[in-house]
Specification:
This protein is mainly alpha-helical and about 400 residues long. Helices cover about 65% and strands about 0% of the residues. The protein is built from 18 helices and two strands. The chain starts with 6 loop residues before the first helix and ends in a 28-residue tail after the last helix.
């Protein structure tokens, strides 16, 4: 007779998922949360797959499998999902701001609530790595090793700064057409790569490049992207433009930076990265209805809600999880896929086996530092909450945080 014990955890899991499902406001667009969760997880998995810390006997230095295996560039097409995050961010921010105005809430109060969720977890990351870097230097670690580790740990901060700036400018961006920042990116690249302008000019695209998907999110809020033909236009047009830029204009095929490469599509964003982002946004828009159906089962929705409730914690700590695993693994020597040079398929196979370990360490970081994201747990997150009927409907619709 089979042991019934294993059925108990499954039953408890389903009961917990049912509670999450019941606590979710019925008007919430679950496709938005699914897209945000997939975007965050795409970035995490992408970093884990293309970031290597090689032990060379004296310390650790960063490397990428894309250096020796450029044919792996399609991996970056799958996991470089920042454009989708900015699309969702623009949609959520413009809806939230419209909802705040309808409630009579001031801009300052609305902005404070949004930015506190973004930056509250940052303090814990900065504090831990300040102490860690100081201890490493005091105990004789090489400066280049410490610099490599700190740079990787704090690299997600650039994203938060850009996202925060766009969030603060939301009232000015609610009606901005995405074509305008796209034109800026086009002209910056023409000046840089066609007319020999200084390379620092490319940093204009750090704002303009991510403005494109962010303002697409605002257009989504305005209802301008509801028809499927908008999604198909963005997908096909963006994909065709990206293919042309890579094939005939000399842009790199990889959508992430490759150490040693003369041009990075991401740092700062190039026209190819932006057109690729348009294709991703088009695909995201086309998948909305399927995602809404996929999120109806309580277990599927509970998993997405769990990621959204800890989105910033996951994003900020995923590189630390990789480095903690790498440093601990050094106690056992140079381990394949963890400390070895990423120069062959054997490294790729070994790295895939390390992904569950990274995820387990990240889960520990999430359990430890998630209270920082929600102010010590004093406030209930709004992805799931007891639904209270509103006295009157607002034009903004469902709220997202």
């Amino acid at each position: 007779m089979a042991d019934p014990a294993p059925a108990l955890p499954r039953g408890a899991l389903r009961a917990a998922a049912a509670r999450v499902d019941a606590a979710t406001p019925p008007e919430r667009d679950r496709a938005v949360d699914a897209l945000r969760a997939f975007a965050i997880l795409g970035v995490v998995l992408g970093h884990w797959l293309v970031t290597a810390l090689v032990a060379d006997g004296t310390g650790l230095h960063a490397a990428s499998p894309l250096q020796g295996m450029p044919w792996l560039a399609p991996v970056s097409w799958v996991f470089q999902t920042l454009a989708v995050f900015f699309l969702v961010g623009g949609h959520v921010a413009t809806r939230g701001y419209a909802s705040a105005r309808a409630r009579g809430e001031s801009y300052g109060r609305w902005l404070k609530a949004r930015l506190s969720r973004l930056f509250r977890p940052v303090l814990a990351v900065l504090g831990l790595w300040t102490v860690t870097a100081a201890l490493l230097l005091l105990t004789g670690a090489e400066f280049t090793t410490v610099h490599t580790l700190v740079k990787l740990a704090l690299s997600p901060m650039w994203f938060l700064l850009v996202f925060a700036a766009l969030t603060a400018a939301t009232p000015l961006l609610t009606r901005l057409h995405p074509l305008w920042p796209l034109v800026v990116v086009l002209h910056v690249d023409l000046l840089r790569f066609g007319l020999g302008a200084p390379s620092w000019l490319g940093w204009v695209n750090l704002a303009a490049g991510w403005l494109v998907p962010y303002t697409l999110g605002a257009a989504w809020t305005r209802g301008e992207l509801d028809r499927r033909r908008a999604g198909w236009f963005l997908l096909t047009g963006g994909a065709a433009a990206t293919a042309a830029l890579v094939a005939w204009a000399g842009y790199p095929a990889s959508m992430v930076g490759v150490p040693g490469a003369s041009v990075s599509n991401l740092n700062p964003p190039t026209l190819a990265a932006v057109t690729f982002g348009l294709a991703q946004c088009g695909l995201a828009l086309l998948l909305r209805e399927r995602l809404r159906r996929a999120m109806r089962p309580p277990v599927a929705w509970a998993a997405i809600a769990l990621v959204n409730l800890s989105a910033m914690t996951i994003f900020l700590w995923h590189q630390t999880a990789l480095m903690a695993t790498t440093a601990t693994g050094l106690l056992a020597g140079r381990l394949p896929g963890l400390h070895t040079l990423p120069d062959g398929l054997d490294w790729v196979a070994a790295r895939l086996l390390w992904l569950p370990v990274f995820a387990l360490v990240l889960a520990g970081c999430r359990a430890t530092f998630r209270p920082c994201e929600h102010g010590g747990g004093r406030r209930r997150a709004r992805v799931v909450r007891a639904h209270r009927p509103r006295r009157r409907a607002t034009a903004a619709g469902a709220r997202h945080v």
